[in-house]
Amino acid sequence: MTSRIEMGEIVGGGPATLNLAELLATRLLVQGNSGSGKSHLLRRLLEQTGNLVQQAIIDPEGDFVSLADAFSHLVIDAAEHTEAALQAAGERMRVHRASVVLNLEGLDADQQMKRAAAFLGGMFDVPRAHWYPVLVVVDEAQLFAPAAAGEVSDDARRASLGAMTNLMCRGRKRGLAGVIATQRLAKLAKNVAAEASNFLMGRTFLDIDMARASDLLGMERRQAEAFRDLERGTFVALGPALYRRPTTIRIGEVTTASRSAGPVLAPFSPPSEPVAELILAPLPEPEIMVRPRRPVAPPAPDLITQLATHGAALAESEEVEEPVDPAERRRQLADILRQVLVEDDGGFRPPASLYQDFLVRCRIAGLGREAMDMRAFRRALATARSGVNTEDAESPEWQEAEAIASELPEDTQGVFLYLARTARDGLACPSDAEIARIYGTHSTGRARRILGWLEERNAVVLRMDGAGRRRVAIIGLGWETQPGDPGA
Predict the structure, then answer these.
(1) Which of 370, 457, 356, 352 is nearest to 415 (CA)?
(2) Model pLDDT for residues 12-71, shown as the tens digit of each residue
(3) Could you tell me the domains of the chain?
């Protein structure tokens, strides 16, 4: 079987080809402003490789769901599934070698980032026995690996950026070949873009994007103006899987159609009749209708069942879980979470990565694939970072502390509960370095800012004695730490 696929034609003559085997080892970056033919290029690549390699498509706009009709891709509607289910789906699609389109249409940016991160995390953490080659296409990559913080939450940005970094930096050894497409190179995180060795640069107009494109292609700055003159569907190609010198190619035709094709210019003929009465007519009075109750249809198979049966030759037996005492189950979950935090420098890993490790350990312990959802995990993570033991965590006074913490942003809850536990036990106030470790950073300056922010929110009160030692009092609980050296 040949590993070369035809992408179109070289401007000036000859077919334009791409070495698929080389692409799987070196990754690809596609850049082009809206309307440059970027999605058309991705569709051409997916169609040409649909029967050659397993594919996973992160689709924020639902453009690629039509591939399911031609190539039997499984379309997963991310809005209908939890992050835990999508994390399991990412693992199962590699185990069963099924091509998947993750449709993120209809979700806001925050939810798109979290669900995409969960799915990519499942693909990344699959056991070594299932490290088969997978072409992972991420459209609108600047949404999932932004160069700067935007309107989304810090947790969503960290999880998504971490997953994209893993895909492009560490995915090759796991068989994951990243193909990322973006409208704006300037908005894409540099450490993600820098890992690509192949480039297809389309039409772009902004100076900052042209400068970055020319730098990646090794062109002089004065040559960057050429990107403004590229026609729709025309790209400059460079890389070991494409050409050793910048070569302009024109992408060929595709056989499947996008659901969100751009508008088509058609003759416009204004209406001849008066339209004021039609447009400004009063709204009809709402009618109260009593609809007959419809019989409830049986629920559709869940996502895990679909993945397990999609293209699989053998049926997988379901594990039957033994009933577990709720108190014992909580103790086991707390012990597993503490192990995750202690091992492999877990305190400095993002919550999404810790959550994936936690779920794997829960499965090994026989606690089920979905032992805890992401929201409950974040609350449990904050409690675990506080250092409180399982028995004290059930006490009414600690439950009151957790109720106060629940009103704070999730990334600060662990610090607040750690201070609360220290104050309750009458221990010395932790140092800036210790607070930074609980927050998941090495920056003592950030730790001091977190303390100042908690004081502004009337969660704690900071006091310094004459020797420069700090005390922290917890507002509403009456707990206060002993004096401690902030720089210890």
Answers:
(1) 457
(2) 888 999 999 999 988 999 988 888 888 899 999 999 998 899 999 999 988 889 888 888
(3) 4-251 (3.40.50.300), 326-480 (no CATH)
